[in-house]
Amino acid sequence: MKFEFVNPTRVVFGIGSLARLGAETARIGHRALLVTGGGSVKRSGVFRRAIESLEKAGVAWTECAGVEPNPRLTTVVRGASQAREHGSEVVVALGGGSVMDASKVMAAAVHYEGDPWDMMFHGERRARPPRRALPVVTVPTLAATGSEMNDGAVITNEKTVEKSFVIADCLYPRAAILDPALTASVPPDQTAYGIADLVTHVTESYFNGVDGTPLQDRWTEGVVEIAMEYGPRAVRDGGDLEARTQILWASTVALNGWIGAACGAPYPVHMIEHVLSAHTDVAHGAGLAIVSPAWMRFAARTRPERFAQFARRVPGLRPESADDAAAAAEGIDGLEAFFRSLGCPTRLSQAGIRADGIARFAADAVRVGGAEGRVGGRPPAGAADVEAILRACA
Amino acid sequence: MKFEFVNPTRVVFGIGSLARLGAETARIGHRALLVTGGGSVKRSGVFRRAIESLEKAGVAWTECAGVEPNPRLTTVVRGASQAREHGSEVVVALGGGSVMDASKVMAAAVHYEGDPWDMMFHGERRARPPRRALPVVTVPTLAATGSEMNDGAVITNEKTVEKSFVIADCLYPRAAILDPALTASVPPDQTAYGIADLVTHVTESYFNGVDGTPLQDRWTEGVVEIAMEYGPRAVRDGGDLEARTQILWASTVALNGWIGAACGAPYPVHMIEHVLSAHTDVAHGAGLAIVSPAWMRFAARTRPERFAQFARRVPGLRPESADDAAAAAEGIDGLEAFFRSLGCPTRLSQAGIRADGIARFAADAVRVGGAEGRVGGRPPAGAADVEAILRACA
Fold first, then answer.
1. Which domain holds residue A362?
2. Burial track B175-184 (b if 16+ CB lie within 10 A, e otherwise)
3. How far is A100 from A176, CA to CA, in rounded Å?
4. I need a labelling partner for A283 at 20 to 30 A (CA). Which of A18, B98, B187, B255 fits?
5. B268-307, pLDDT tens digit by residue?
6. B290 and B192 belong to one structural domain
7. Cβ within 8 Å, pair A3-B13
């Protein structure tokens, strides 16, 4: 293990912590760009409670509404422009992963010289990451992306139909208000996709990271176990606040570096999925539930012992086979069955994605999400591999 | 779960990372108080490599040597005074837990008005924690206390024969240089005590924390498993760098808040042990190896199911009994046997501590480490309980 790690985000966790938003924001600044999505926070009353908390703490705000799923570069540019006009000192992200990701890139775009798309990693073209950003306070209303406590964001360039990511120290939120009660109104399908997302975050590290990270292995297995224990409860009964609590915390730690930093893994399933949600309106987590098992079957051929270990250690999977390759296959089947049991699609066709786009998706995956004609991972996947993976889950 | 968490320490982990000390320190300041212990870093050559790295980065330094095990208040006062005279902008802690703890309190004492002992928690008397401190860079040469990446420190007041702790945000080290190779020269006994220390950090949270922290449970079990797998290797062969790597990382994450913050646990075994190492020269980790199983037997009477869960989930313990109380007892016996197998004492007499001091130790434990006549925990322990715990491990 050889790595660097830092994560300065302050976490305020617990049911009712939304009431702390104003005070935590006022510690940072008194003029906020308040970023929201499609309106669910207004229907649920969360928006009203958020602005009451901000106003009580003396924070003036202007709303940047309408961040779409798979947030677009033009939306980022619009938000940054609004923050500049308003003289915002802080950005408050009130919503799901799309809102949080857009908020972070808006915060960086305020100070960025040139096209914000240049911040993003996109394969062969070299990214120019941001060095400064307005401070961000995240208030997730969905447990999924982990964006609330990390330094990454994913944005879609609707002109080039490319979805790519940026990672930079300045994007760590200053504070994260994690109130599990805010996720209680998330419908079953979105809840399920969030669970597929958090599970995939840790399995990407587990299966693509460096050797010799036994503690991270155990922690990953723990996250997957929690997802398998509490995920079905959260899908079945959105108001099960104990389940919502455990799932929100699991989604946060799944991608805040506590597990992943030491693993140094590329994220091939994400790189492949990003193409799907750039070209179609599939939800990111749903796309991961489709691609993840198919990618695992591809990778398990090279390292069956690693996949067998995972299957044998996660209580909800427990394969019967003594043979590694067979145990690996049972474990992957079990994880796929788990995604299906939550209501996730596990085939492209179930998400309305037609097989005739697969060759294009594979070409885009290695071009936008890879380097030297391959998507990183163990093993790396060339365009033909990605095409085979996608055909296997068509 | 309801908690707040922040940990801004930047970690540079890996064999060879000592060479990064100068550059990481120079990012913070160019005049360093370099704090060391009894001279082992000079014998091992680590000191020479550290100052070469500092000087290469243009950092001027003055050494504050001679921090003793169970570091004393007078040493803290001496270091703070030296830092003021030198105009130190940063404190570099090069040593074990004592050096790191003393360094942190020196860094705070530089700005503190009044007696630094007032910073410390001591039972009925109310502490006045520091709000400012010089930035600290930790370079642990021993895997044990986790002080390298947390906001706590333990100091002994030699006049009152009291050992107490301080916790404050300003004490988080700015950076931690975690080089497992520096721990290769630690002798077997100190290596073993460090392992007892890191194990006790996570078990204190596990057995005294709030209910409903299943992810933290799994992560704790993972830390104990890693300790049981790699600890014996590190004790047997100090030069086993893979074992040193895993143990150093386990000791860091055992007390950096990643597991403990959400648990909000008091640390009764530590409060009891602090009395032993205030009154005798027992090593802190050795004292924990003695007190921990005895405290567990006391607490398991109230919550056998919790101790049975722990025993059943940690692969190295695996009790045979179906009955919770019996499984709990088997697990505690197993953990005690593990400490013994490493070479730790598990009886006061083996550490040369006489039984005739027990009544005084118990009285001091509830006075210095407790409140309202009891040491916190599940269940809380009055002086009579603490006395019984200590007699059980006499």
1. 188-392
2. bbbbbbbbbb
3. 11
4. A18
5. 999 999 999 999 999 999 999 999 999 999 999 999 999 9
6. yes
7. yes
CB-CB under 8 Å, B225 with A1 = no
- Report, in angstroms and rounded to the nearest whole number, the Rg of chain B calculated over CA atoms: 20
Run of H or E including B35: strand B31-35
Are the beta carbons of B222 and A215 separated by less than 8 Å?
A: yes
- Model confidence over B362-377: pLDDT tens digits? 999 999 888 889 999 9
| CA neighbor of A90 nearest in space, from A132, A33, A50 | A33
CATH classification of the domain holding A103: 3.40.50.1970
CB A239 within 8 A of CB A181: no
Same domain? A175 vs A219: no
Strands (E), chain A: 3-13, 31-35, 60-64, 90-95, 136-140, 152-157, 162-167, 175-178, 374-375, 381-382
Reported pTM? 0.97
Write out the H or E segment, with its range, that includes residue B164: strand B162-167
Flag if A1 and B13 touch (Cβ within 8 Å): yes
The answer on A197 and A309 residing in a single domain is: yes
| The residue count for chain A | 394
Q: Indicate the SS3 state at residue A207.
A: helix
Residue ending a domain, among B152, B183, B214, is B183
Residues B202 and B153 in one domain: no
CA distance A138 to A130: 19
**Residue in A1, A14, A226 nearest the CB of B249:** A1
Output the CA torsion sign for B266, B272, B278, B284.
Answer: negative
Whether residues A212 and B262 touch (CB distance < 8 A) is answered with: no
Same domain, B134 and B223: no
> Across the interface, which of B4, B212, B223 has its CB nearest the CB of A242?
B212
DSSP string, B115-155: -GGGGSBBTTBPP---S----EEEEESSSSS-GGGSSEEEE
Q: What is the ipTM of this complex?
A: 0.96
- State whether B284 and B170 are in the same domain: no
Domain total in chain B: 2
Do A236 and A366 sit in the same domain of this protein?
yes
How distant is the Cα of B2 from the closest Cα of chain A, in angstroms? 4
First to last CA, chain B: 37
Shortest distance between the Cα of A72 and any Cα of chain B, in A, equals: 31
Q: What is the pLDDT of residues A311-350, one digit of tens each?
A: 999 999 999 999 999 999 999 999 999 999 999 999 999 9
Q: Which amino acid is at A119?
A: M
Q: Terminus-to-terminus CA distance in chain A, angstroms?
A: 37
- State how far Cα A46 lies from the chain centre: 22
